[in-house]
Design goal:
It is a single chain. The protein is α+β, with helices and mostly antiparallel strands. About 45% of the residues lie in helices and about 15% in strands. The strands form three sheets. Strands 1-2 form a two-stranded antiparallel ribbon. Strands 3-4 form a two-stranded antiparallel ribbon. A two-stranded antiparallel ribbon has the order 5-6. A hairpin with a 2-residue loop joins strand 1 and strand 2.
């Protein structure tokens, strides 16, 4: 059967194609590609993000909303970590606001699990395997991703983790054709597939993120995570 896939990186496409070739449906392929994009398209996709999906199932058109949710309570303004970084797009400039106070409740994990529960046909544990292998073995930087890294260089350079992933030992952005590995992402995806979304919204991830948020001037709490639901 003929099918079409459109992705922002070849590895994202390959993850979805592998699932389709092995008998999975379009939702299975989209989920596998989404997991892979956490590694292959880190400026555009993340387990800390959110989104929307439109599915055509039989004669029905279904809309899934798993966008990020505003935290319920704001921390005092005097403690907030929230500041702009200007991104130069060439013909125009735009301020991106960053810092712990810029972070909302991530919805993407809830969205993945809801779509899979409703329409998936292959165990989620299998759908995540391509992304785990990619994170462990390394992803090659293509021209489009390198362009993203260049645009967001000042943001990627804010933390030691960003510098270790996207910059070389001389402190320069990695080049087209270079690779980067995400060992911690591989571990996270492995545990997520085993323990499920409660690990994310009610367990270790929620506790860790809310603790960091409290320490660094953000708004997120464990209650924000527990009350999140994709629709």
């Amino acid at each position: 059967m003929a099918y079409g896939l459109a992705c922002g990186h070849l590895e994202t496409l390959n993850a979805g194609r592998e699932i389709l070739d092995n008998g999975g449906n379009a939702v299975d392929a989209a989920i596998a590609g989404l997991f892979a994009s956490f590694v292959s398209e880190p400026c555009m996709s993340s387990p800390g993000g959110g989104g929307f999906s439109v599915l055509r199932v039989g004669q029905q058109t279904l809309f899934y909303d798993y966008f990020c949710q505003t935290p319920m309570i704001k921390c005092p303004e005097s403690k907030q970590d929230f500041f702009p970084i200007t991104v130069d797009f060439g013909g125009t400039q735009e301020d991106f606001y960053v810092g712990a106070s810029s972070i909302a409740v991530p919805g993407i994990v809830s969205g993945i699990y809801k779509m899979h529960s409703d329409h998936g046909s292959i165990p989620l544990r299998e759908l995540v395997q391509y992304a785990i292998a990619l994170a462990k073995n390394g992803c090659e930087i293509d021209p489009f991703q390198h362009h993203d890294f260049h645009l967001l260089e000042s943001i990627l350079n804010l933390t030691p983790e960003g510098r270790s992933l996207f910059f070389n030992t001389e402190g320069q952005l990695k080049s087209i054709g270079d690779t980067y590995k995400m060992a911690q992402m591989a571990d996270f995806l492995d545990v997520l597939a085993i323990e499920g979304q409660r690990f994310y919204y009610e367990g270790e991830i929620a506790e860790m993120v809310s603790s960091i948020s409290l320490q660094k001037g953000g708004h997120l709490s464990t209650d924000d995570f527990k009350k999140y639901k994709a629709h």
